[in-house]
User: Fold this.
Amino acid sequence: MIHDATDVISVGQSLPELSRKITQDTINRYAEASGDHNPLHVDPAYAATMQFGGPIAHGMLVLAYLSETLTGAFGEQWLKSGRLKARFRGAARPGDTVTISGKVTKVEGGRVTCDMAARNQEGEVLITADAQVTA
Assistant:
């Protein structure tokens, strides 16, 4: 965690990275949990006929990893006061390793702003986001 009552948060500080392997099983379990059984995610034969050429992970699954990173960095403060504005830029596929990174860009009036990104193992950006939390 980068923040507790004794920590000083500074601009330029990196958040601890988080990496997660995406598998078809992970996607299927997320579909069960979320109720989103879109065949683009869970039916490889159908997904092969679509623009991505195969199944892709739910965007919200990858976004959950981003929130997990922020929870790890800011703990309950993220859960109580966190705000996230995200933009989906690419798709995660089974077999990808998604890495979440973040950097503090502003500290003002007790509010911390971070630039966040999710990238695959090739370095392709999947999500960019602006996160704010009261520290």
The radius of gyration is 16 Å. The CA atoms of residues 3 and 9 lie 7 Å apart. The mean pLDDT is 94. DSSP finds five helices and five strands in the chain.
